[in-house]
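Sanity check

After download, print the first record. It should look like this:
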Amino acid sequence: MKYIHSIRSFFAQIINIPVADPDDSRRRRLLNIILLGAAAVACVTAIAGMAVATLGVIPVDDGLRIAGLSIATFIGATIIYLINRYISGRYAGILFLLFLMVVVVFSDELPQLVNGRSLYVFLLPIIISSVLLAPSASFVFYLLVVIEMISIASVAGVPPNTPAMSVFLLFAIMSWLSSRSLEQALRELRIINVELDQRVADRTRELSDALTREHAEASRRQAILQGIADGVIVLDNDGDVIMCNMATSRLLETPIEQIMRHNIEDILQTSMLSEEDREILMQTIGAADVTMAPMRIRWDKRTLSVKAAPVRDAKGQAIGNVAVLRDFTREAEVEEMKNTFVSMVSHELRTPLNAILGYSEMLRDAIYGSVNDKQANAADRILKNSRRLLDIVSDLLDKAQIEAGHLALHYEQFKTTDVFENMHSVMDQIAIDKGLALTSSIAPEMPEMIDSDPQRLQQILVNLVNNAIKFTEKGGITVRLYRVTDEHWAFDVTDTGPGIAIEDQKFIFDPFRQVEGTVTRAHGGIGLGLSIVNRIIDLMKGRIFVQSALGQGTTFTVILPFDPPHKKE
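Expected structure tokens:
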């Protein structure tokens, strides 16, 4: 354990750069990770290139070229690392991206770079620049990449790959949007953390003053402590607990009798706490000579923020320590969801990219001839995959509008039959392509006209039906519209798919979450559809329910009022 901890500490010292600006620190740390990885890959590639050349697997000249390029990459990565660590992260980032663009030129044959198997490498500086420098840097390096591609095409004697350049612009826009959203979220999170830390610091200081002034009034102190939602624990100079509240027992999931009058070291000897967090807590709570900055630790399934300060008497002598424990689980989950979101978006972009590159390569190699309908079909496939990316952006924009309270509902009277006519026009062919039956019915007691927002109602229904088709392999999907009461009507979307486990149903409406729970899941999407549907239904003063079990299919039920809350425009 100590050996592993030493290795972790060593790598942390290499990667982390102590600077005041948190954004600069994050970018320089990310660049260090990339540079160390590049250096390691360069070493392995150099050795492998020389080895296979020696064995005669590839020509000696190719082996020397690979080894030379790898050595140059290693030297370049080392120089950029030193600049990043001791001079400037921004200069190092720009130098790295320019160096990467130079290395790209020597990574493959020139025709393959602009029109072949290595075309994807030009995406690297576009995507990485928005993370290492600034969101808008993706557009700058997009222009540089276009210039580089045109120059390489001119030298190679081939026409520039205009479709690829257009697609790269889309990726530059996506990189800009993703990076800008991430940085904005980080800024908002830091503001929240500063406010929360200030609240904790103020509360800790107030408690310290109160305990010092009212040392003789034990009952009053206990009443104050029990009225605080955060956990408060007070230790004497020997580390024994002399006071705590019920919130402490709840947060630590330990009976209060196993906390009071026990030493802090004995309390922390629990399997709910890792060895590393135990050491952090001992340093924070057990020996707080001064007011400590808040520390985060994992206690079983909870994430706790711990703030400690010394308790002093009227003469300024330390008589113990006081610590405030706050449940930070939700905030930690939000941070984790943001990281998961970045991973999901990266994964979702791979499939359209593969299609774009694949069909572009067919057009380039003239598989279907110089001018024919199949080439037009390939271009249509490219367009469809681009639309898929636009659908992801649309979901993100809907989510942002809902969160900001800018999503407006437009109510009007329309025929009940229009609900299904619009749905079938969109979803019938999708169901047929998958070999599924899509049927619908309207109960006779439903009125001929209903009052709702047809566009948002269509969005809700299409989303639920599309999900049902996506997760159903055989059988079909049934949609039924009916009256629930005199005030409410509803529709069910029932599929014959694999069903949803009971434990997974509690978070299917959470944003950026799917039942598979991993970015390697078999079905597409970034987990926003059901979240957006749920929020729109809330705005329409309706409810959505799910009834499902593994192996028994799934039914989503949406209940809406006949007399909806009309919004004034």
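If your output differs, re-run the checksum step. Summary of this record's structure: The domain at 412-561 is CATH 3.30.565.10 (Heat Shock Protein 90).
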